[in-house]
């Protein structure tokens, strides 16, 4: 049953990007015509990424380059959700982002203050940071363990970021692991999938019932995990990280609603036939 294609359309379509729409710099088969087809049918399309090393603007440029022009307000990532969460819950907090430039830039555009002084840091934000170093770990350690004032959040729970060809890079979970390892603290909040905060950012401004929407992605833990947490339909595409075997090994309650080899099979068979789509076309 796991490999069944949808036989109906959903009220909105939320897509992960890497491993789902493209892999590295290459569009995945059927992705472009799927997005165009959904837009022709009047279905809202939104894009979500757990990756905090890019600005939403960068995704606009990337999608445009791949032939899928998309307005910035249809794209959300963990830079957006982290800033949003801080503004809503801790607007007065002094934060220490262990992150790359996009998150720092977004924080500078708000009233939220950043500091590297452990005596005044309230929140340490562990992120996917390829400039991570011992100095940053020491600041986090002092703020959390020595001065006992800061708590730890993360932009996203991913262990690694996959690359085409099977390699990858350590992701935010590695930084969380380093901080938890030396302080014994517990992670207080995660701003990425599978948390519902990502769904809220995606469907913000859309008048849709989340239970009638579908989340489409290549990673069981994050993409499908968010759909299950928020009681949405879900579709695992086998073009990125997770495999059919991994999906089949899960309890039925944790399995995706659909598993597809090609993302354009999200469009029901009868409509694809009407449109004359065959798998060889793209
Ligand atoms: Mg992905």
Quaternary state of the chains: single chain
Largest sheet: 6 strands, parallel
Structural class: alpha/beta
| Proportion of residues in helical segments | 25-40%
Q: Strand portion, in percent?
A: 15-25%
Q: Mean pLDDT, rounded to whole units?
A: 95
Give the neighbour order of strands across the main sheet: 5-4-1-13-14-15
Tell me the name of the CATH homologous superfamily of the largest domain: HAD superfamily/HAD-like
Please tell me the total number of domains: 2
Give me the CATH architecture of the largest domain, please: 3-Layer(aba) Sandwich
Ends distance:
26 Å
Supply Rg. Answer: 19 Å
Quick one: CATH class of the largest domain?
A: Alpha Beta
Question: How does this model look, in words?
Answer:
The structure is a single chain. The chain is α/β, with parallel strands linked by helices and 282 residues long. Helix content is 33%, strand content 20%. It contains ten helices and 15 strands. α8 links the parallel β13 (213-217) and β14 (233-237). α3 packs parallel to α4 and α5 (134-146) crosses α6. The radius of gyration is 19 Å and the shape is elongated. It binds magnesium ion. Magnesium ion (MG) binds at residues 16, 18-20, 217-219, 240.
List keywords for this structure.
alpha/beta; Rossmann fold; 2 domains; 15 strands
Short note summarizing the structure:
The protein is an alpha/beta fold and 282 residues long. Helix content is 33%, strand content 20%. It has 2 domains: 12-50 and 194-281, 3-Layer(aba) Sandwich (Rossmann fold), CATH 3.40.50; 79-190, Rossmann fold, CATH 3.40.50.1000.
């Amino acid at each position: 049953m796991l490999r069944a294609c949808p036989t109906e359309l959903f009220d909105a379509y939320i897509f992960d990007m890497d491993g789902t729409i493209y892999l590295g710099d290459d569009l995945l088969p059927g992705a472009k015509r799927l997005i165009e087809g959904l837009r022709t049918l009047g279905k809202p399309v939104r894009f979500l990424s757990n990756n905090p090393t890019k600005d939403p603007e960068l995704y606009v440029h990337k999608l445009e380059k791949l032939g899928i022009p998309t307005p910035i307000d249809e794209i959300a990532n963990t830079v957006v959700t982290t800033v949003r969460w801080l503004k809503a819950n801790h607007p007065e907090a002094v934060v220490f982002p262990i992150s790359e430039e996009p998150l720092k830039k977004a924080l500078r555009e708000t009233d939220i203050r950043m500091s590297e002084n452990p005596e005044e840091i309230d929140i340490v934000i562990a992120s996917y940071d390829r400039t991570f170093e011992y100095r940053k770990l020491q600041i986090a350690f002092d703020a959390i363990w020595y001065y006992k004032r800061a708590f730890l959040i993360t932009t996203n729970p991913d262990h690694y970021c996959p690359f085409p060809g099977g390699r990858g890079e350590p992701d935010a979970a590695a930084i969380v692991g380093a901080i938890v390892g030396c302080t014994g603290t517990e992670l207080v909040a995660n701003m990425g999938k599978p948390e519902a905060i990502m769904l809220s950012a995606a469907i913000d401004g859309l008048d849709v019932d989340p239970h009638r929407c579908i989340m489409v992605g290549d990673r069981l833990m994050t993409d499908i995990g968010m759909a299950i947490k928020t009681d949405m339909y879900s579709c695992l595409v086998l073009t990125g990280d997770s495999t059919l075997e991994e999906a089949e090994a899960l309890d039925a309650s944790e399995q995706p609603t659909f598993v597809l080899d090609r993302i354009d099979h999200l469009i029901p068979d009868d409509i694809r036939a009407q449109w004359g789509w065959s798998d060889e076309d793209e």
